Amino acid sequence: MQLDVFTLIPDAFAWIRERRPVAAVLGAELDLRVFNYRDTTPLSARQVDDEPYGGGPGMVLRVDVVAAAFDAVYGGVPEHRVVALTPGGRQLHQELVEELAAEPALTLLSARFEGFDQRILDHLCSDEVSIGPYVLSGGEIPALAVVDAVARRLPGALTEGSGEVESFSAALGGGLEYPHYTRPAEFRGWSVPEVLLSGDHARIEGWRRERVRALT
Ligand code: ADE
Known about the structure:
This protein has helices at 14-18, 22-25, 37-40, 63-74, 94-101, 118-123, 140-151, 201-215, and strands spanning 2-7, 31-36, 49-50, 60-61, 81-91, 105-109, 127-130, 186-187, 190-191. The mean pLDDT is 94. Helix 5 (94-101) packs across helix 7 (140-151). Helix content is 31%, strand content 19%. The protein has 8 helices and 9 strands. It folds into 2 domains: 2-151, Alpha/beta knot (3-Layer(aba) Sandwich), CATH 3.40.1280.10; 170-215, Orthogonal Bundle (Trp Operon Repressor, Chain A), CATH 1.10.1270.20. Bound molecules: adenine. Adenine binds at residues 85-87, 130-132, 134-136, 139, 142.
């Protein structure tokens, strides 16, 4: 997948390249590019945002700035999906993650503070996505969430089999994952469920299915 992020804070995307799952798929299933709107802005002094028409607080990312960034990178408006991260967008859930991970190319747009000129959303984007019903100071953290969630669905991102039965996956009927335990078997009187120590795989499977049912 070609995954492009447009941002005013490219540094925010540095660490994620070095860590699984992104590190595991970079150069193979994933090409992750990060672009700074300031590098291609047609305005002087690297300006990218402006005061809102009609007044009000904050600054708004300009439509001509985003259009210029697209011209520079794609030669126009891309034909693939362009997702703007906005608090009012469609809420991100695992089904949408799977959908996005299946795209051959995807562009994520983030903005700071008051956000996007509406014409960016109307004419330059195909989707608006929110990571939850709360307002963050910008789209970088939401974009990082999308990059991580999408990267871990790409082939080779996870250790064999581990992505198949995680929370919200089809294998669990979209439900939550069963609880995990590891050594020590007993700590401060808190013990691991006996069934998990039994070595009886059929019983363990049954217990896990039951926990998923109870949690969902
Ligand atoms: N930008 C600011 N808040 C956001 C949120 N909750 N989801 C996506 N983008 C945002």
